[in-house]
Amino acid sequence: EFEYFNVMDVDPSAKPMDAGVRKLRLTKIEGTVIVPASGKNAGKQTFKINGSFTVVDDEKYSGRRIWADFWLSNPYNQKELRKLADSTGVNQEPGEPLTVWLARLAEFQPEFMAPVEVDNYTGADGEEHSKNKINFFQARSV
């Protein structure tokens, strides 16, 4: 029950999954129009897609989630979206609006196989951190 949930009982030292090929289910995907207020792209409209993926059929990590963002202004992210479509078999139809395709993906919740990697980075706090990321370029159908 949520009423008795205590955040102080949660271990704050989140650790990423070990790297390896995992079966993933797309559990949520949605897009948002973004207009940055500052920086070199200030005032320029772009579209950001937020995806949530859940590990399935894994003895150790089933239920773990990985989040991925796709910026349509980024050609690399555009290619990742194409690989997502290819590996899930849920393709965008000619003339189909992107938002409609995203809604179909979200409704279908397709599964696919992909390498899950450990991404090490320096956070805004200056500390070293690790998180998981999906290698969409090596994704394949189940």
Structural class: alpha+beta
What proportion of the residues form beta strands (DSSP E)? 35-45%
Poorly predicted regions are none
Oligomeric state of this protein: single chain
- Helical content stands at 10-25%
Q: What average pLDDT do the residues reach?
A: 94
Largest sheet features: 6 strands, antiparallel
The rough form would be described as: globular
What does the secondary structure layout of this molecule look like, with pairings?
Blueprint: E1 20-34, E2 46-56, E3 65-71, H1 75-88, H2 98-108, E4 111-122, E5 128-134, E6 140-141
Antiparallel strand pairs: 1-2, 1-4, 2-3, 4-5, 4-6
How would you describe this protein?
This protein has 142 residues and is of the alpha+beta class. Helices cover 18% and strands 38% of the residues. It has two helices and six strands, in the order βββααβββ. It has helices at 75-88, 98-108; strands spanning 20-34, 46-56, 65-71, 111-122, 128-134, 140-141. Strands 1, 2, 3, 4, 5 and 6 form a six-stranded antiparallel sheet that branches. The model has no long low-confidence stretch (mean pLDDT 94).
